[in-house]
Amino acid sequence: MLPIVESLLWGNRWPSGGLLAPARPSSIIRHSLCNRVKKALAVMIQHNLVKFEASERNNNIAEYSIIHHNVYCLLRYPKYLYMIKRIYGTSEEILLEILLNLGQASASNVIFQSANRLKEANDDSEFSDPSALHKSFLKLAQDNFIIRCPKLADNANIQKVPTLEVEEKEKFTVPHLEIGPIAKLLKENATQLGEHGDSEVIWRVNHERFDVELRNVILVNAAARRVDATAGELYHLILKLWRECSNPDSPTTNALSFNVIKDAVRKNEGSSPVLLEHFEQYLRVLYEDTSSLIIRVGDAGGGQFVLNYSTVFENLACATLDSIVLERFGSKALRLFRLTRIQKFMEQDQMQNIAMIPAKEAKMFTYKLLEHNFLQIKELKKGTSNFAPVKSFILFHVDLPQQVARTALEASYKGLFNAMVRQMHDLTDNKRLLDKHARLETLLETLRGEGLPEDELAYLSDSMTAAEKSLVARIHSMNDHLTLGQTQADDTILILESYLKFSSMT
Amino acid sequence: MASPVVIKKEKVDEPRPSPSADAGEGQTEAEIECRMIELMGEFPKGINDKILETDMPNVDKKVKVAILNRLLSQEKVNIFRAAVTKELFWCLKQQPTSKLKGVDSEEKIVMRIIEEAGNKGIWNRDIRTKSSLNQTTLNKILKALEGKKLIKSVSSVSAAKKKVYMLFNLQPDRSVTGGSWYSDNEFESELVDVLNQQCYRILQQKAEGAKQKPLEGPLIVRNASFLSSKEICQIISDLKIVKFNLTVEDIETILDTLVYDGKIEMSSTTDGYSDGQVKTYRTVEKILSSAGIVRIPCGVCPVIKMCGTVGAVQPKNCVYYDQWLD
């Protein structure tokens, strides 16, 4: 099916340049294509990658378009699982994994499949009570990590292309489930759930919530680096409070008062004694810091504190860009870049003098930065004399949102894509070898389970030479390396995308 | 021999009235000159034609002009043009003209121009435009003056080959020599780097010392890691890295470069002792350790623009990836 999917994507006249190129909002496919295409589309819709709506020109034809953010988030699934495991525990992680695999599923189905998975993992010895899983599901829904899918609208039967909608207040409410039938089916070792009461209520993973969580991780790390680990703890708490009281889409959170924060710190069981003792000092150090992690806006209730996403992500984006300039061009170029960014407009001579870099080197780095779009030139003409040649000032400046951040973001996409291509290439080149190794391993496992003596197993395992085995090990480590690299590139992409999103909001 | 010398006494005639002297008041040129000098004394800001008219209306204009020109050539008066009205003013020259003795008029002109330039010095070509002298003549004069140790040439730091001339005993201005960081018109980048690292290390040590007492709370820890520019200057001077005296301004320029490196931050506070703001500095951690993208070869690749799915530069056979994955 993959070739069909790919041909669908490429055939829809996207700008070329890789899977992650920003897609055009909608593409037109005739509804009367062959069945395989239909099936491919259905699978993608099931996994929330494609959505459909009635065409503007003709209400009887559906237009399908890619939800490219969701496609991109496919890369982040391992991160999601790790986060859920860290915040809650294993049963929630299993629930999420099942839901990610299924794409969209009803609550009972998810719970049933997770219980099955747990049973297999524990080798049928334990019977995991689905009610515990039900509680975990409720927790996930409460914290908005999963969200209800839109269902068929009331007048859907009349239209050729059905519309889907969901009410705002019902997005996170779990309907009443009947645990009893699920438990019974589990005992009978059934593999399918069959009919159940809430099959109309379908859930999917809420990517926006996970994005917020990923951003929070970055912010907490920043706070911990700036001050110390206890400050990171405090900041984590404050972020939770802000999330509970503010709209997730607004660029600034609502204000929290000092007393509210204090109460929360007192009530929190995990607060360290240092935090409790020096709570005001930590708060003060955080809001006086120049990184805008907390901004104090008023004095009511002991002090009002907000978080302005655009300022804090501007600082983070600047730190990212500084790091990129530093690694690519060197520390002197970094000094020039930061100088121009802080002072807004600078002449070449001024830059040399203030940065205390010898003239030749300063000129070289300035022009290198100019070449790679980190600096821009603005020419101001001086003098209106018709006789003498007009003297013009050449000023350098940093155009953060338009030029620099977008260039860096495109470069990051390209880097991520290259890492993926390289990974795919490595795996396909050595596919034969890896398959052979995998087959051998499974064979050895089953035979060991059946109790074959060790020397026979050793004889079998010698069918692969040591060189081949070391090569396989090397391929695996390269694979891991590349996956790790992709995760790190994804971090940068998250920061830059968030910065561009919030700066365009204000 | 002892006959008394008979001095013939002739009747002294009235001085022959020269055509330039007006017979009306019977003033001599010398008297007119004295009167003019008196007037200039009364009006230290200068006298113009109007004042002369009111004072000596009967004196012919040509006489006045001749006298004034003579005074000018004797270097007793200066001539100026008023900015607004464009009138000519004459005033007494204050400076002693003793040191210009023994030089001729062209040299005097050149000397005056160089004197006016003060301690910034003046370029050869500018002297030429101001004095309208010939190039060769000018060169001769400059050599002669240098030989007499009245002027000297100093090479400017902004253009290595450009020489400016100034009076012999003047100290060249900072803009010419470049200040403390230039020696022999070369920018001492090693010295700047050494001082840079030294300042950063001092601030780091202070911050480390402050972190040793975490129990007192983060505010105390933060405030204890500040150092003012004066204190840093003191510490560096005690270390005796540089031979000359470092001023607080010099250290502040170095500290500014550290701020622009992103390693330290500055805050202005008021000090109890001195008036005005005192600049204090402390080290800060960056809010992001390093961008994720630079940890893969593509983030720092010099040929990233040429990379693609076809062509010489591809991720499949990229040498940077090969090195990184090994």
TrEMBL record, chain A:
Q: Which residues form the DNA-directed RNA polymerase III subunit RPC3 winged-helix domain?
A: 321-398
PROSITE patterns xrefs: L_LDH (PS00064)
* Cited InterPro entries: L-lactate_DH_AS, POLR3C_WHD, RNA_pol_III_Rpc82_C, RPC3, WH-like_DNA-bd_sf
Specify one Pfam family: RPC3_helical
Q: Which GO terms describe its molecular function?
A: L-lactate dehydrogenase (NAD+) activity; single-stranded DNA binding
Q: Subcellular localization, per the record?
A: Nucleus
What is its quaternary makeup?
Component of the RNA polymerase III (Pol III) complex consisting of 17 subunits.
Function, in words: DNA-dependent RNA polymerase catalyzes the transcription of DNA into RNA using the four ribonucleoside triphosphates as substrates. Specific core component of RNA polymerase III which synthesizes small RNAs, such as 5S rRNA and tRNAs.
Homology family: Belongs to the eukaryotic RPC3/POLR3C RNA polymerase subunit family.
Q: What is this protein called?
A: DNA-directed RNA polymerase III subunit RPC3
Species assigned in the record: Daphnia magna
Q: Which gene encodes it?
A: EOG090X04YD
From TrEMBL, chain B:
SUPFAM superfamilies annotated for this entry?
Answer: Winged helix' DNA-binding domain
Please note every region of biased composition (Basic and acidic residues). 7-16
Give the keywords, sorted.
Answer: DNA-directed RNA polymerase, Nucleus, Transcription
Q: Which GO terms are recorded in the biological process aspect for this UniProt protein?
A: transcription by RNA polymerase III
Which InterPro entries does the protein's record reference?
Answer: RNA_pol_Rpc34, RNA_pol_Rpc34-like, WH-like_DNA-bd_sf, WH_DNA-bd_sf
Q: Where in the cell?
A: Nucleus
Main localization of the protein? Answer: nucleus
Which domain of life does the UniProt lineage start with?
Eukaryota
Q: Where is this region: Disordered?
A: 1-28
Pfam families recorded: RNA_pol_Rpc34
Q: Which GO terms describe its cellular component?
A: cytoplasm; nucleoplasm; RNA polymerase III complex
Q: What does this protein do?
A: DNA-dependent RNA polymerase catalyzes the transcription of DNA into RNA using the four ribonucleoside triphosphates as substrates. Specific peripheric component of RNA polymerase III which synthesizes small RNAs, such as 5S rRNA and tRNAs.
Question: What protein family does this chain belong to?
Answer: Belongs to the eukaryotic RPC34/RPC39 RNA polymerase subunit family.
This chain's protein is named DNA-directed RNA polymerase III subunit RPC6
What organism is recorded for this protein?
Answer: Daphnia magna
